[in-house]
């Protein structure tokens, strides 16, 4: 299974890539939203893992644009930010 990981925080990206590769996933990592969207549109991925806050385009915007172009793969959203009410 081939995954697209879009995460701009270097240590988080390294940890996720290492963990996923140990589980025998093929992982392509991108650190900004524009590169992530371009890669996602190639159609070679089985799943995408997107950080919510990215330079260029947010994870939400990547997902929105990908869906408009007919990309139907599962998309998981990540965030390290918390909200307090």
TrEMBL record:
InterPro entries, A to Z: CheY-like_superfamily, Sig_transdc_resp-reg_receiver, WalR-like
Record has Transcription regulation as a keyword: yes
Modified residues (4-aspartylphosphate): 51
GO molecular function term, any single one: transcription cis-regulatory region binding
Entry annotated with the keyword Membrane: no
Swiss-Prot/TrEMBL GO biological process terms: regulation of DNA-templated transcription
CDD domains: REC_OmpR (cd17574)
Record's GO cellular component terms: cytosol; protein-DNA complex
Signal sequence residues: none
Keywords: DNA-binding, Phosphoprotein, Transcription, Transcription regulation, Two-component regulatory system
Domain Response regulatory stretches: 2-85
Protein role: May play the central regulatory role in sporulation. It may be an element of the effector pathway responsible for the activation of sporulation genes in response to nutritional stress. Spo0A may act in concert with spo0H (a sigma factor) to control the expression of some genes that are critical to the sporulation process.
UniProt-recorded name of the protein: Stage 0 sporulation protein A homolog
